[in-house]
């Protein structure tokens, strides 16, 4: 791959590609403390549920390291108390993607289980570093497994519509929805992609199209409002998207606009697949109604690349995600296999519960 989404360098600097600037500029930013990582998540320098989770883990490591070096930390309890404050702060960066909280809790557990003296704090910090790197490596591995299972659903010659960017840029690498497409292409299937532009942040136009072009995977950009016509004309064989959070009944939160694509797919008898790691499933949430939906600055809607396209003082709404009810979802592709309805039953089984 000719680019990377993010990495933790050996000198403990987090480096990430600035996704606000793509595709016109390929710039990598350097983040040296947890506040900079928090801002990168909030301002969407990095975005996509799994990539946010990995970034948070790296950010927490930077926070833990700085705390361990601070003179005022005199005992493990004060380290723990201050570190948990950093965890809460990181958790608040974006509300919808469950992977953020999942990664924060995974790192938190290391500190929770410790009972070291001051000297022992350094070894805890080392363990946090290893855990954050493990989350990164696992994410790529998980995406490849997901790709393997999902590729079986895509036939040679399929034209696959996707919404937003659920690719390498949204993960540590390889991607979820685009990972499935990559895997099918690696199996020598001729797959072409139709990418929704994905207003207002334009993840489809700017990121998905750029990412697929880097890999020479054929991709055609459409305006968000074209999907229905293309489906009706028989030009779409399958839809595949990622997810930010999946409730235990299989309702899916994903980028705003996903819901209408799913309804259109059902109306036109086109399979609608969701590719997501098990860490995106929130067993604490019974249905999509309980998933928090992020509302962002209306300026993202009234302006494009900083240029106003609506009248001054125009009111605008900017919900960043919507909920697709489980009845529209043909299958959920995970790293452990493909789940079909009834999702409540099969999701519980996937987590070893009945
Ligand atoms: O606001 P974003 O760009 O973070 O939203 C991203 C999405 O909605 C993705 O589809 C989702 O996170 C899955 S990424 C593998």
Helices and strands in order:
Blueprint: E1 6-8, E2 14-17, E3 28-31, H1 34-42, H2 49-69, H3 76-91, H4 98-112, H5 118-151, E4 159-162, H6 177-186, E5 192-196, H7 203-214, E6 219-222, H8 227-232, E7 238-241, E8 245-247, E9 252-255, H9 258-267, E10 272-275, E11 281-282, H10 299-302, E12 303-304, E13 307-308, E14 321-324, E15 331-334, E16 337-339, H11 343-350
Parallel strand pairs: 4-5, 4-7, 5-6, 7-10, 8-11, 10-15
Antiparallel strand pairs: 1-2, 2-3, 8-9, 9-14, 12-13, 15-16
The chain binds 5-S-methyl-1-O-phosphono-5-thio-D-ribulose.
5-S-methyl-1-O-phosphono-5-thio-D-ribulose binds at residues 47-50, 97, 164, 166, 170-171, 176, 203, 241-244, 254-255, 320.
Summarize the structure.
The protein is built from eleven helices and 16 strands.
Written description of the protein model:
- This protein has 354 residues and is of the alpha/beta class.
- It folds into two domains: 6-144, Four Helix Bundle (Hemerythrin (Met), subunit A), CATH 1.20.120.420; 147-350, Rossmann fold (3-Layer(aba) Sandwich), CATH 3.40.50.
- The chain is 41% helix and 16% strand.
- It has helices at residues 34-42, 49-69, 76-91, 98-112, 118-151, 177-186, 203-214, 227-232, 258-267, 299-302, 343-350; strands spanning 6-8, 14-17, 28-31, 159-162, 192-196, 219-222, 238-241, 245-247, 252-255, 272-275, 281-282, 303-304, 307-308, 321-324, 331-334, 337-339.
- The strands form four sheets. It has a seven-stranded mixed β-sheet, sandwiched between helices.
- A hairpin with a 4-residue loop joins strand 8 (245-247) and strand 9 (252-255).
- Helix 2 (49-69) runs parallel beside helix 4, helix 2 packs antiparallel against helix 5 and helix 3 (76-91) packs antiparallel against helix 4.
- It is globular.
- The mean pLDDT is 96.
- It binds 5-S-methyl-1-O-phosphono-5-thio-D-ribulose (MRU).
- 5-S-methyl-1-O-phosphono-5-thio-D-ribulose (MRU) is lined by residues 47-50, 97, 164, 166, 170-171, 176, 203, 241-244, 254-255, 320.
């Amino acid at each position: 791959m000719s680019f990377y989404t993010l990495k933790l360098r050996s000198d403990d600097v987090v480096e990430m590609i600035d996704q606000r600037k793509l595709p016109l500029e390929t710039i990598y930013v350097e983040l040296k403390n947890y506040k900079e990582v928090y801002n990168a998540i909030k301002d969407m320098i990095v975005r996509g549920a799994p990539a946010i989770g990995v970034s948070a883990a790296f950010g927490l490591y930077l926070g833990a390291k700085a705390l361990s070096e601070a003179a005022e930390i005199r005992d493990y309890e004060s380290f723990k108390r201050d570190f948990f404050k950093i965890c809460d702060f990181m958790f608040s960066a974006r509300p919808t993607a469950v992977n953020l909280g999942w990664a924060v809790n995974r790192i938190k557990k290391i500190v929770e289980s410790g009972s070291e003296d001051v000297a022992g704090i350094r070894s805890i910090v080392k363990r946090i570093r290893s855990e954050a790197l493990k989350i990164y490596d696992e994410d790529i591995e998980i995406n490849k497994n997901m790709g393997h299972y999902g590729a079986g659903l895509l036939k040679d010659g399929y034209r696959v519509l996707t919404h937003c960017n659920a690719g390498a840029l949204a993960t540590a690498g390889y991607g979820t929805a685009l990972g499935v497409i990559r895997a099918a292409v690696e199996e020598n299937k001729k797959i072409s992609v139709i990418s929704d532009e994905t207003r207002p942040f334009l993840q489809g136009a700017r990121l998905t199209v750029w990412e697929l072009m880097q890999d020479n995977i054929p991709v055609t950009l459409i305006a968000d409002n074209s999907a229905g016509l293309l489906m009706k004309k028989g030009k779409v064989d399958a839809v595949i998207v990622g997810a930010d959070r999946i409730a235990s009944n299989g309702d899916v939160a994903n980028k705003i606009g996903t819901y209408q694509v799913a309804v259109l797919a059902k109306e036109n008898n086109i399979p609608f697949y969701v590719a997501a790691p098990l860490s995106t499933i929130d067993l604490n949430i019974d249905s999509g109604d309980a998933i928090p939906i992020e509302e962002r600055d209306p300026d993202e809607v009234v302006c494009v690349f900083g240029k106003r396209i609506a009248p001054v003082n125009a009111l605008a709404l900017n919900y960043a995600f919507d909920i697709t009810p489980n009845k529209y979802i043909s299958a959920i592709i995970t790293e452990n296999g493909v789940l079909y309805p009834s999702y409540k039953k099969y999701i519980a089984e996937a987590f070893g519960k009945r």
